[in-house]
Please model this.
Amino acid sequence: MSENKVPTILSLETCAQSRLFTIERVQLRFSNGIEREYERMKNHGHGAVMVVPYLNDETLLLIEEYACGTHRYELGFPKGLIDKGETPEQAANRELKEEIGYGAKKLTALKSLAMAPTYFASNMHIFIAQDLYQERLEGDEPEELTVVEWAASDVSGLLANNRFTDGRCVASLLMAERFFAEKE
Amino acid sequence: MSENKVPTILSLETCAQSRLFTIERVQLRFSNGIEREYERMKNHGHGAVMVVPYLNDETLLLIEEYACGTHRYELGFPKGLIDKGETPEQAANRELKEEIGYGAKKLTALKSLAMAPTYFASNMHIFIAQDLYQERLEGDEPEELTVVEWAASDVSGLLANNRFTDGRCVASLLMAERFFAEKE
Model:
């Protein structure tokens, strides 16, 4: 990176708040003297995890889950917030047990992903899960999630699916594909 | 997809609002009868674009841009909102001219990506740009963006960069890599 000097925060205040979201108004002065007002989402919590679970070398597991933002069922990987006191690995294994009814003996950390750094500081740790064993934990989902098996080799088919659209799911799938290709 | 019945929206109201963001509170009844309160971000605008620009077969172009959410400079691809009346292709070409000083004679549409469907309906159209020509348009950035050349073959190096973290950037990079690998 070049040596850009981060803008000075002239003021910072909460300008809107709901149960889940806190929006901050930020007055900034850039290093060239230009001042601008930005808005961003205040970061709560301890980050999140997403897990790409392999039932075996040939089979990926996906879930179908209702997404309120798009008001439809979306296809994606198990994910969730890290609870206080949990490591990302513990959260990944808990979410797997809650959402697909498996734990994983082997978790491999891939890259951590941001959602949209312009507005959010949130950070999501991505894992590959292998060596699964059956174990179900009660989650807080309002309904049971549908687990979908997908041929691990059919990455193109999954990319073409118009219910598989979350940028972090697409990134996770392709990082996992790359991870296994590099091992071969 | 299986035939999950989308929950019934019992009520929908704005519960917080700022200049940029509108947060909605949604009361839902799932098909199993369970009722839950959700929050989501109201969708404004006409979607967004992100462009993976190839200066030539060997060189990708990236920008360094201040991100208020993380309060640091991030490395990523040119992106921006689609203006009213613009096609995604027109928006992609305009953003390229504003952010890196090039137009593109060739734009290839990849998949459209969601940010986080649980909370947002926003949709981002991803393009590969090739056959670039110099043309600069004045953007609304508070400071000139730093353009960074990156060896197109060094995908692993870019993935390892801890300033290249936006899930949609990672997805776009790997979809572009896949696109060219399939053509070979």
Summary: Helices of chain B lie at 88-99, 155-160, 167-183. Chain B has two domains: 8-41, 48-183.
